[in-house]
Design a protein that fits this description.
heterodimer; A: alpha/beta; 11 helices; B: mainly alpha; about 90% helix; elongated
Chain lengths: ~270, ~260
């Protein structure tokens, strides 16, 4: 199998900074086609930024990102938009348009990008809403939905254009156990049934590992570990073990870098005396 | 002292950078304008949201401003026996100045702040990012229809403000103070020039509409995507667009009416 047939997203030597802060320092990773891949990492490591870079909303300062063989940063706006039509994205907040009902939100990409008749759009939207269990919520406004329902509606919207890949930004954050179970089942089922490639960024370990075929752990702008969930659990890396077991101290220290404790206390006493 | 100079320099650089972003934003919105015009239903929706919904405050304000102008004008003119020129005073003040300026200020407070809050909220809830990821250009779909609607709505609102103001002046001058109805209207008709006064007033409305809406949508799109960021962007919209209306009014008046 050729490289582009087995790999949908190829990232090489990615560098990206926001202001003075370097987010990625030579990140290289392959996202396999047709699989569920999870990118794990602590908060603030740039997981969401990575999705934006893949979707072309941000441009790398150095390095190359290829999606389905296309160099994302080198695409014209028109070609980038054509690529985005084949990528669905589920934002952490759902990002539903607040002035449209659930039905109209799901119908929105079809109405914008196709000239399908309304009767067909109606059928397609109902099918997608049915697949996420929200056919009964079609007339509700986004403000009337719970967090889990909003994400399911957003998933229906992301699926309605039949994308080749869906990117999930922290899909499990703040979900109750039932909503979490529903989302896990949906991501897993949708990936299998529609033959999609799914890319999840998350810091919810157990949930992400349970549905992933491939896991990449990033920290401080680089890949720390990658492989199957099983390989990750058996990793010898102290950092990975600290992250997986949620240990408060280790390679990621509990205390932020600071001056010596005793001299710091002594200097504050001197300041008060003065 | 050094800190003060440093802080002044940093603020100047930041202001220049914001101005640059605002112009780049305007350019991209104008590039998206043909697509917005092609889907005029989006512009109609925005005309309703920013124009029709501002109409009531404009009409009520116009009525009262016209009534106050008639009262104040009468008190002065009657001393010279020139109260029959009251119609001219009311109409010229409204059409040349107060119509576009007060409408601009009210539009900034009502529609401008609503636009900033709406777009800021869309940014902070990732709706704008969501549109981009759905391959929908927010400049064409969101910003351009709003800019065009503001550009069209404000001169129409200013015209209605002036018209209602003239009627308010009539109520006070003719019905309350007993100025001759024929004198009120005929002197107005002969002294107010359509080209020099009405058209120039409308041009002011067009300029204010463009500037206020530009500031409002830019502040929304450029805000820090947090509740505090949206709140301070809304305040900035009202302050900046009010000052812009007053400053531009002076410049336009100097160009249009200086001898």
């Amino acid at each position: 199998m050729s490289d582009t047939q087995s790999t949908l997203v190829k990232i090489r030597d990615l560098h990206f900074s926001r202001g003075p802060k370097a987010i990625f320092k030579g990140l290289s990773v392959d996202i396999p086609r047709g699989k569920v891949t999870t990118i794990l990492g602590p908060s603030g490591t740039g997981k969401t930024t990575l999705l934006k870079l893949i979707g072309g909303q941000e441009k790398p300062s150095q390095g190359r990102i290829e999606v389905d063989g296309l160099h994302v940063a080198g695409l014209s706006r028109r070609d980038l938009f054509d690529l985005r039509k084949r990528i669905g994205m589920l934002f952490q907040s759902g990002a539903l348009l607040t002035d449209l009902s659930v039905f109209d939100n799901v119908a929105f990409p079809l109405r914008e990008h196709t000239k399908l008749p309304e009767t067909l759009i109606h059928k397609l939207v109902l099918m997608r809403l049915h697949s996420v269990g929200l056919r009964g919520a079609r007339d509700l406004m986004p403000a009337e939905l719970s967090g889990g329902m909003a994400r399911r509606a957003a998933l229906a919207r992301a699926l309605v254009m039949d994308p080749m890949m869906i990117m999930y930004d922290e899909p499990f954050t703040g979900q109750d156990p039932i909503s979490m179970g529903v989302l896990l089942e949906l991501i897993h089922t949708v990936n299998k049934a529609l033959g999609l490639t799914s890319l999840i960024v998350s810091h919810d370990l157990a949930e992400s590992l349970s549905i992933s075929d491939f896991v990449v752990v990033i920290s401080e702008g680089k890949v720390v570990e990658s492989g199957t969930p099983e390989a990750l659990r058996n990793s010898q890396s102290a950092w990975v073990q600290q992250f997986l077991n949620g240990e408060p101290d280790g390679p990621v220290p509990f205390q932020l870098e600071a001056p010596d404790y005793a001299s710091d206390l002594a200097s504050s006493k001197e300041r008060l005396d003065a | 002292m050094l800190n003060a100079i440093q802080s002044l320099g940093a603020k100047t650089l930041s202001a220049v950078a914001t101005l640059g972003r605002a112009h780049a934003f305007l350019l991209q919105t104008l590039i998206g304008m043909p697509a917005a015009i092609a889907r005029f239903s989006l512009v109609i929706q925005q005309l309703y949201a920013s124009g029709v919904k501002t109409l009531s405050i404009i009409l009520v304000s116009g009525l009262f401003v016209g009534m106050v102008l008639a009262l104040q004008g009468y008190n002065t003119l009657v001393q010279f026996g020139a109260e029959e020129s009251l119609g001219v005073v009311v109409a010229l003040t409204l059409v040349r100045e107060l119509g576009p300026v007060v409408t601009g200020l009210l539009f900034a407070g009502r529609a401008g702040s609503a636009l900033t809050a709406e777009i800021g909220l869309m940014k902070s809830t990732e709706q704008l990012s969501g549109l981009e990821m759905m391959a929908i250009d927010p400049y064409q779909r969101i910003f351009a229809p709003r800019l065009l609607a503001g550009f069209l709505a404000l001169p129409m609102l200013a015209a209605m403000f002036s018209a209602v103001g003239v009627l308010g002046g009539h109520l006070v001058a003719v019905e309350l103070l007993g100025v001759d109805v024929g004198a009120y209207w005929s002197q107005m008709q002969s002294a107010v020039s359509f080209q020099a006064d009405v058209v120039n007033g409308l041009i002011k409305g067009v300029v204010f509409g463009l500037v206020v809406t530009w500031i409002a949508i830019f502040e929304g799109a450029d805000c820090i995507p947090t509740p505090e960021g949206v709140a301070s962007a809304t305040t900035r919209t009202v302050v900046k667009s009010s000052l812009a209306v007053l400053g531009l009014d002076f410049l336009l008046t100097a160009v249009m009416f200086s001898v």
